[in-house]
Specification:
This protein is an alpha+beta fold. It has 2 domains: 90 residues, no CATH class; 300 residues, no CATH class. 22% of the residues lie in helices and 13% in strands. A 3-stranded antiparallel β-sheet has the order 11-12-13. Strands 1-2 form a two-stranded antiparallel sheet. Strand 5 and strand 6 form a beta hairpin. The chain is elongated.
Length: 410
């Protein structure tokens, strides 16, 4: 028999039942004594919260917590701003690629949320590079909520030379929850919370890489949609540290996965190039290895040593000048001569995309089409073979000569 009752009534009922079962203290734990108040309820294995028709477990295993990385931390040091007695009224933030029930517009009816904001982490993790995370590309949801200059990204309607009206960008105003279905926001747990990673449709998108029909596009979309379930790790409260995150691409792949969509040029808007969906750097890296490029550098962290302060204005994107992650860090002998000083390495060595000049940076880079805009693409899809005709042709817009003058470029 199913009993339905208001959310807070049910939560209170379950919590009060749990609080009559005070656990015996574990002498082996090194947890702060203040946590005993929390465990008087949360040590009950039956403690759950119903959100709509979904059951969210609230049981925390004391022994597992005591053996974890945060054994000496107070519960309320991370779970800030909560009432200490039920109902806690914890602030919920939805998403960060935890896409279970994410499409439900009534967010009170989905378990797709977390309650610890990354700013709480900074109270203990005081290293400056961690603090920089809050202003990084990951935290500010670059290119989705904001333009390159930091202004909010808004939908724009323009008329093409064919007289038709086109919509540029997407209208993200007021849809932060939707943005964060995929993007991290200020949540450290997106990468560090140890939980199950689920692929929407099993398969390897590379098997369909050059197929651009509707059915293939749909399949590639499903294969490159991943989600995590925040609720699967509540009991153990385990976190991934550097050791776990630098031995595989599993966590990076959950977001940096995607596919090409074939030609998405819009002549009426002067837009030309291949469409790119999501962020297929992992696929690009695998394609590079098949061509003999970076065969021994297949982990993201082999090159990206520090991700907490990732800022594309000051770091490498398509081998931009002046950043931390540069091709010449390993290939010092390949520094470009003056005649190509405004050309990035990836502009020449990208295997599939066309090269264009980025007006903002005045650099020649690989270009992709996203949201009916041409965007500088941080290509990892590289080849040792270079096609000079990507830039050197009649009427090119990058300022290159029509004919190639023989000579060393490095």
């Amino acid at each position: 028999m199913k009993i339905t009752m208001p959310f807070f009534t049910l939560l209170l009922l379950v919590t009060l039942t749990a609080c009559t079962m005070t656990p015996k203290p574990d002498s082996t734990t090194a947890m702060p004594s203040s946590n005993a108040h929390c465990f008087s309820c949360h040590a009950n294995k039956k403690l759950v919260m119903m959100v709509g028709g979904e059951s969210v477990p609230l049981y925390v295993d004391q022994a597992a917590y005591a053996a974890g990385k945060h054994a000496k931390a107070e519960c309320i040091a991370c779970h800030t701003g909560m009432s200490l007695t039920p109902p806690h009224n914890a602030k919920r933030t939805y998403g960060s690629w935890a896409r279970f029930s994410a499409k439900d517009t009534d967010t009170t009816r989905t378990r797709n949320y977390y309650v610890v904001d990354g700013r709480a982490c900074l109270a203990c993790h005081k290293d400056a590079r961690y603090a920089a995370f809050m202003k990084s590309e990951h935290a500010t949801i670059k290119d989705l909520k904001f333009e390159a200059d930091g202004k909010p990204r808004v939908e724009r309607k323009v008329k093409g030379t064919d007289g038709k009206e086109y919509v540029l960008n997407e209208n993200f105003a007021g849809s932060e929850n939707d943005c964060e279905r995929c993007h991290i926001g200020t949540n450290c747990g997106t990468c560090h919370w140890k939980t199950h990673i689920k692929q929407k449709q099993v398969g390897n998108v590379l098997d369909l890489w050059t197929k651009y029909d509707k059915a293939s596009d749909t399949a590639k979309g499903a294969m490159t949609e991943y989600s995590m379930d925040w609720t699967l790790n509540i009991a153990s409260h385990e976190f991934n540290g550097k050791a776990e995150l630098t031995k595989s691409n599993d966590v990076c792949t959950a977001c940096h996965i995607g596919y090409y969509q074939g030609d998405k040029s819009v002549p009426a808007l002067g837009i030309q190039g291949s469409g790119v969906r999501r962020h297929p750097q992992v696929q690009e890296l695998q394609l590079s290895a098949k061509r003999g490029v970076h065969t021994t550098l297949q982990l993201c962290t082999d090159c990206h040593k520090e991700l907490h302060d990732l800022d594309f204005k000051n770091t490498e994107q398509g081998a931009r000048v002046g950043g931390k992650t540069q091709c010449i860090n390993c290939h010092a002998e390949k520094a470009l001569k003056a005649v190509h000083a405004d050309v990035t390495c990836a502009a020449c060595h990208d295997a599939e995309l066309g090269a264009q000049r980025d007006a903002e940076l005045n650099l020649v880079v690989p270009m992709a089409v996203k949201h009916k805009l041409m965007e500088s693409w941080p290509s990892h899809n590289l080849s040792k073979e270079v096609r000079c005709e990507k830039c050197h042709f009649a009427g090119n817009k990058v300022g290159a000569t029509e004919h190639v003058t023989p000579g060393k470029v490095h």
